[in-house]
Design goal:
This protein has about 280 residues and is an alpha/beta fold. It folds into two domains: about 10-50 and about 200-280, HAD superfamily/HAD-like (Rossmann fold), CATH 3.40.50; about 90-195, Rossmann fold (3-Layer(aba) Sandwich). It contains ten helices and 15 strands. The strands form four sheets. A six-stranded parallel beta sheet has the order 5-4-1-13-14-15, with helices on both faces. Strands 7-6-8-9-12 form a five-stranded parallel beta sheet, with helices on both faces. The longest helix has 12 residues, at about 75-85. The chain is elongated, with a radius of gyration of 19 Å. The chain starts with 9 loop residues before the first strand and ends with a helix.
Amino acid sequence: MADLPLRVRLVIFDLDGVIYRGTEAVPGAAGLVAWLHQQDVLVRFATNNSMVTRAGYVERLGAMGVATDAQEVVTSTSATVDHLARHAPDVRSVLAVGADGMRRELEDAGLDVTPASDARQAEPGGALDRHYDAVIVGLDPAVDYARLSSAMAAVAAGARLIATNADSRYPTPAGFLPGAGSIVAALATATGATPEVIGKPEPAMFRAILESTGVRGDESVVVGDNPDADVAGAHRAGCGAILVLTGVADAAVAASLSGERRPDAVAADPHEVRLLLEPRVS
């Protein structure tokens, strides 16, 4: 394994499997976050979930004893907003294929948002009644053929196709459901367009965090439980990566990893994460 940064000014946590598992807090996670705050280390929570607003995550984390604010929470939607503001400020009108939480985040950022369910076509397969700068796609539990048709028409008319994330599956307490990536794949197939993907493992989310905090990647560490999303995404953005074994990966999986999926360090739990970070934040 490679070495972690000698000096750590920013720690980016994944949420599910790292800070909590389902509705239960991971033991020691709240204390680790509080300790980092006490050390004046910047903390961010990064999730590919586009359905919940940042305020919703602040409330959820607070109920688990994790003190935070909306500035520290980065969803794939808020990262998309930040990415557009910095790299595509001409995008103002968007057609949204996603849940209400995604739509509210986009509207709060000042974008002119039309839910795909409200878009109007003169006839199926025809042009829309207005132009859109971008189609932004997240997980939409109510997606249907009409919404896909409207999004396809917008892309055909010149809109950029932007995916908040491309997760193939979405975990629930009852098992997996299709993720946002299944919708993105349908639109990419139908339009022939290559989507701009913001969420993990693409580096845009982590790069947006680095840009907004002014911290370099070689002074940052991502703590995640998923080698494919968290570790690979961290390395693509130039950040260090700690794989914590409180989620989807166990010790056997960690030992088998290679390439960009191989973490810079492995920790059994939040206590071991702190031990790894202590000499690097003082």
